[in-house]
Amino acid sequence: MSKAKEFEQRLERTEHQLGLLQKISRCMVRDMRLQDALNRVVTLVVEFMDCDSCLLYVVDGNQLVLRATNSSHPAAVGEVKLALSEGLTGWVAREKRLLSISREAYRDPRFKFFSDLPEDTYEAFLSAPVISRRGVEGVINVQHRNPHAHTGMEMELLTTVGEQIGCLLMLSRAEAKSTSEMPDLVLSSGVPRAPGS
Asked: Phi, psi at residue 66, to the nearest 5°?
């Protein structure tokens, strides 16, 4: 392959990556329900990474609760829960580190099996912590049915998406707190405003 062609492909991938991050940023600033924003982010990640599964877990107390997925099992949302000490997902949350397994993820000794999730049989597993300045807010997992060697770009991208989702969750919690404490200071869009403005 010529250097010019290689450069064109790299530029195209970079533009595609930037487009994904811009779309996720728009989920953070638009007036939309948190659940809709999380669902949208999962859909965007699946489209961009061409993966078979994307699962987004959010910390709730000392558990990780499945809050969004592209899976054909929507009933699992809110029902699948992991202790922070369980599974590959729990490990990522505890260690605050990216985890990449290119094949036979289900054989990893940290793996936890859920009989109602078909993703348990998928080969490749890429997981990043969802973090904000408050700490770990959750975990996002990307899975492929077949073995898949994750590229550095995919790992960096999922890490950045995890940071964006972390900011979205932190903002959502701050907004919920401010609206419960000062309901008369909130515009219809949900953006707090100062008294007299």
From this structure: -65, 120
Widest CA span of the chain, in angstroms?
Answer: 63
Question: Per residue in 142-183, pLDDT tens?
Answer: 999 999 999 998 999 999 999 999 998 988 887 777 766 544
List the beta bridge partners of residue 64.
59, 82
A 10 A CB-CB count for 176 gives: 12
Q: Is the pTM of this model over 0.70?
A: yes
Q: Which residues pair with 63 in a beta bridge?
A: 60, 83
Cβ density class 66-80: b for 16+ within 10 Å, e for less: bbbbbbeeeebbeeb
- 90-147 pLDDT per residue, tens: 999 999 999 999 988 877 777 776 656 666 678 899 999 999 998 999 999 999 999 9
The three state secondary structure string of 111-137 is CCCCCCCHHHHCCEEEEEEEEECCEEE
What the chain holds in terms of domains, given with CATH numbers, is 3-172 (3.30.450.40)
AA letter at 148: H
